[in-house]
User: Which sequence fits this backbone?
């Protein structure tokens, strides 16, 4: 199912449709400020496991990332030092994933790696969804297969054509980007960029 939502002014009724799917353990494809993402209620372990299976992600070896709507409740899910919080405040919302130590509020599936990626994208649609849901949303990007045209990760209609039978809803938030987020490891004293993607980190 393809659902059009406008980033400048997300319609609350359309957002409600997405929320009810997420609360039922459903999987949603949504726009961000980088690539289109695939996610679920990040605290619903069965839904997280389903996405890991779909994407071939081993949660014991890979960092899982979650989207928060702002910085106010990040300390519920990750341990944030004062310097790291200041760095995040300078750069979020924006195209960055900050790797942080997990807290006990996250389900066990996140604790295998003892770290979690935190995203606050500069995209109103997904942040509104997270705020209305009351939980973070799991964040994985829609991947391009080797022989596919790039439109299959940027054009919502083609994303729906490919994933429509597998996910519960594809949100059409306009044409997406092709550059992933910049990943910043904040688990030691000095932040370290471990993947340079979109955006320039403001230190």
Assistant:
């Amino acid at each position: 199912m393809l659902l059009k939502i406008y980033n400048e002014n997300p319609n609350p009724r359309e957002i409600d449709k997405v929320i009810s799917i997420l609360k039922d353990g459903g999987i949603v494809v949504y726009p961000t400020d980088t690539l289109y993402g695939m996610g679920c209620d990040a605290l619903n372990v069965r839904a997280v496991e389903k996405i890991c299976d779909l994407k071939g992600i081993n949660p014991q070896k890979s960092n899982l990332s979650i989207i928060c709507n702002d910085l106010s409740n990040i300390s519920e899910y990750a341990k944030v030092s004062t310097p790291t919080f200041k760095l995040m405040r300078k750069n979020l919302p924006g195209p960055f994933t900050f790797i942080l130590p997990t807290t006990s509020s996250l389900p066990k599936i996140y604790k295998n790696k003892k770290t979690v990626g935190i995203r606050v994208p500069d995209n109103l649609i997904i942040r509104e969804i997270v705020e209305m849901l009351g939980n973070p949303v799991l964040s994985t990007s829609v991947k391009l297969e080797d022989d596919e045209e790039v439109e299959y990760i940027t054009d919502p209609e083609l994303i729906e054509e490919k994933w429509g039978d597998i996910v519960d809803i594809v949100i059409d938030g306009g044409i997406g980007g092709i550059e992933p987020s910049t990943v910043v490891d904040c688990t030691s004293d000095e932040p370290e960029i471990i993947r340079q993607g979109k955006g320039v980190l403001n230190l």
Observations:
- Strands lie at 2-4, 28-30, 37-39, 65-67, 96-101, 115-119, 137-141, 169-172, 182-185, 192-195.
- Residues 12-23 form the longest helix (12 residues).
